[in-house]
Amino acid sequence: MADGCVCGLNPCLMPMCAAVSWDSWSGTFVADPRSLAPYQGSPVDVIRSMLDLASAAAGDTLVDLGAGDGRVLLEAFLHSGVKRAVGYELDPAVCAIGRAHIAGRMSNEGFKTKEAQNERVELIEGDAREANLEGVNIVLMYMLPEGHRVLCPFLEEKLPIGCGTRVVTHQWPIPGWPVGKQIETETGTKLFMYKR
Fold first, then answer.
1. Terminus of the chain with fewer CB atoms < 10 Å: N or C?
2. Which residues, including other chains, have CB under 8 Å from residue 100's CB and lie 6 or more apart?
């Protein structure tokens, strides 16, 4: 392992990784064991393809598990017109950046108070495995395959078959779930849609 690396993580890439912190006692970067994926922002065209695949529209409530900087939430609200978009992000630094970006964009859209903004678009610092999925129509995820495996029991408990919630994953399928529809974007990104 290279100097300054823990678990094979390159210190030059630390700002891109979710839930990684500097441990001053040991002098190394330490990954949060709850982390299900590194932070990797999705391009707008991929986000819009995910929203289109989910048939996101007015009246929908959307949750993004592993929301990163909240860009999916803003696109869901501003482009697709969902009623409410909520994201869960484990990394406090990424979450803070996302909240600031959301506040700026929502303020420009006429939502001047934090309360008014959070009624429509909210980024919560928290574990995806503790997300509130009650009344949610759409769940979006961009996780590694292991993250999907970890989330499967939670999703199956909170989204029983027949509830009608649409789940869309970016790049990797959910193991053991029958794919309702699969597409590939012009840039080669694979998207998978499931209906519970």
1. N
2. none
